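Entry 12.
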Amino acid sequence: MLIMGHRGAPEAAPENSLAGFAAAAAMGAAGVELDVRRTADGAMALSHDDTLADGRVVVEHTMADLAGSLTDLASALDVCAPLDYVNIEIKNWPDDRDWDPGAAVVEAVVALLAARGELDSPRYLVSAFHLGTLDRVHELAPALATGWLLGLVDDPAPLVEKAAEHGHSAVHPHHVFVNEAFVERAHGSGLQLNTWTCNDPDRIRWLAQLGVDALITDHPDLALAALADQS
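Predicted 3D structure (tokens):
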């Protein structure tokens, strides 16, 4: 089971920061997950929330305005070069302040990876909660791996087949929903199962035993230690 740092290594450095990604790499994580939002000038800023702690709405400011507070995707990918995997989560949801039905941020992400010559690199997986946004990624870049983030619904397992029908590579349920049947259902549909965000050593070991493909955690070092104890 691959260990991915949740927004980097948030217990060691600020989330979605260059320092956090470097810290995750230093801890031995296989990769990181990061969050991308569009700015007023069409740039790609890393932020989980649509609004910063100081009240600024990300999409209402240019990248230059936000540079002291947020990093941009290109800089993050440079720092993540030592890692084997990067999960780029695109934030585009109808309830968010930056909701864009046209999903322009998808075109920006795809264009950046294309400019870097990495559009078909197995290092990257693009994920999103909004299925239409993820479908747009697959439409523009069929060779790019895509994972559907499954929200906290009563039973996300039936969505596995829908993800496969839409041509996606993986499903990303919260770890509380994962059990043996869910893993078998995903793998039976030809999909990877990558789960989030688990920090409990015993459960991490149990998820690995089930055959989960990747786990996103706030503590990459502790997760790796838990797996080492298992071997």
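Annotation: The mean pLDDT is 97. The first helix runs from residue 18 to 27.
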